[in-house]
Design a protein that fits this description.
Blueprint lengths: L2 H16 L24 E2 L11 E5 L3 H11 L12 E6 L15 H13 L4 E5 L6 H7 L2 H8 L2 E3 L6 E5 L7 E5 L7 E5 L1 E5 L3 E3 L1 H4 L15 H11 E2 L2 E10 L12 E10 L2 H9 L10 H8 L12 E4 L1
Parallel strand pairs: 1-11, 2-14, 3-4, 3-8, 4-5, 8-12, 9-12
Antiparallel strand pairs: 2-13, 6-7, 9-10, 12-13
Helix pairs in contact: 1-3, 1-5, 3-5, 7-9
């Protein structure tokens, strides 16, 4: 498929999904994921650092596909992160029964483009999934992510009870917890959060987005939300973080609803340092990284740099 035709098809899919109710629909292409190696306390999908490239890049461009391409190229391109024959799991934020304009979920055009890039790199299997807060079928359909990702060639999977496995996360707060197997039985993990205000954690970007790998009663974790975020970030270290700041939810997060709470920023961040990417994204909400407790705690835990410029930072405008 030519890039121009792909973008047109994806945009049509997004528009259709935004007005689809979604009840009673069944997601196709479901099959058992091949079991990976034995689970450990730390699941890292990171690539080795290369001094030739920055750890974080930002592009502010009207076209989100172009913005993603520019930031990814600055980090070395998709083939640095995905090799032929590998299994890839993409983790957008699909938590809420909202349409794209409300900025509660990751931009479906970005998700679709990432799927296309992974296919271009030779990935053998690409799964897009999330453990949602609202009804999963409605979330995946109204967000536009189901149709856009499938049009690009991914398998979009709803979480099912049999897909959770008990894992010792080895955290200070998080120990044994059910984890959706697609996030650990894979070769590469691409975390694709959207930038939002959050009523309990000040902001939600990449590290908070990892809540969506967990099953169980996640609301129990809210009493110590900052430490639980750090435990997750230590356990599950993605290959790449792609931050959607094309639309930023300034207020009313994480669910949102009012279009007046959304700011058009037309920005994408790609990073191999999940602390640095969260710190940079927090600035869209008027926050410095060191002001956000879970970001500061993550740096102290050795997970990355709050001062993203020390990670190697490139800005493309």
């Amino acid at each position: 498929m030519k890039r121009r035709d792909f973008i047109k098809k994806t945009s049509q899919a997004v528009a259709l999904a935004a007005v689809t109710g979604g009840t009673g629909l069944i997601f196709h292409n479901r099959r058992t994921v091949i079991a990976g190696p034995a689970l450990s306390r730390t699941t890292s999908f990171e690539v080795a650092h290369d001094n030739a490239f920055p750890r974080i890049a930002l592009a502010r461009v009207d076209d989100p596909v172009s913005a993603l391409g520019k930031t990814l190229d600055a980090l070395g391109g998709i083939k640095r992160f995905v090799k032929p024959g590998e299994r890839v799991t993409i983790k957008p934020n699909v938590g809420w029964d909202r349409v794209p304009a409300q900025a509660a979920n990751t931009n479906p055009i970005l998700v679709a483009e990432m799927v296309r890039l992974c296919r271009e790199a030779g990935a053998a299997d690409i799964v897009v999934t999330d453990v949602t807060c609202n009804d999963p079928r409605r979330c995946f359909i109204r967000s536009g992510i189901r149709d856009a990702a499938e049009a690009a060639g991914a398998r979009v999977l709803l979480p099912a009870e049999e897909d959770f496995v008990d894992v010792d996360l080895g955290g200070e707060l998080l120990t044994d917890w059910p984890v959706l197997r697609h996030f650990i039985e894979t070769d590469r993990l691409i975390n694709m959060p959207i930038t939002k205000q959050h009523s309990m954690s000040a902001c939600t970007v990449g590290m908070k987005n990892l809540y969506g790998i967990l099953g169980g009663r996640r609301n129990q974790l809210h009493q110590q939300i900052d430490q639980s975020i750090v435990d997750l970030a230590r356990f599950c270290r993605p290959t790449l973080v792609v931050v959607d700041a094309t639309r930023v939810l300034l207020r009313g997060g994480p669910q949102g609803g009012s279009l007046s709470d959304v700011s058009e920023e037309k920005t994408v961040i790609c990073a191999t340092d999940q602390v640095a990417s969260d710190s940079r994204a927090a600035e869209f909400l008027g926050l410095m990284g060191e002001q956000v407790r879970h970001i500061a705690l993550a740096e102290r835990a050795g997970l990355g740099n709050v001062n993203y410029r020390t990670s190697g930072y490139e800005e493309i405008i």
